[in-house]
Amino acid sequence: MMDIAEILKNKQVVIFELDDVLFPEKDYLLQVYYLFAQFIEYTEQKDAGATLAFLRGEFEQNGVKDLFDKTANQFGLDSKYKYNFELLHQNARLPLKLLLYQTILDLMQELVVNRKKIFIVTAGDPEQQLNKIKQIEWNGLEQYLTVYFTDELKQQKSEIFQNILNDNNLLADDALVIGANNFDAQQSKIVNLPYIRSLEIFK
Fold it and tell me: CA angle at residue 180 from 52 to 189, to 5 degrees?
């Protein structure tokens, strides 16, 4: 596991992605699938346990691609329910709060104590991403966050990164990006920002 003090050394700003950086995205999706399975049981009298088991298995094996269509084929569901499936992704009220990775919680608390600025720059459906943010257990950190939705702003992450630097009169070395994948790394590189993949923090 990385030394948090070393990560923060000489940094004034840390920029995070959301999914699989601050919390495991599957914790959100599996609760959405649970709610959808309950909805289908109520409307179609189909066993929620079987529906959820199928959704979970397909998701863990093959990801989210065509997940509704596969489920509809498996259980004979009308295509009209795709609307409900997608709507739940945007506005589901989860049974359980989403929990930050403990290491990330420790890191963000350290940032606040040391008066560093915290930004979240996240891609994807803005409504869905905001819904996730609202249901995370922030432990009081929410007041220290500034959030940018790339799809809402219609900007690349690299543009937003540069704007954050400009707005705070910072050089690239004053900031750090913690992302989830190669795309985040590439976007950081465009503006010469130091980058860490979130998984490296947990080693």
Answer: 155
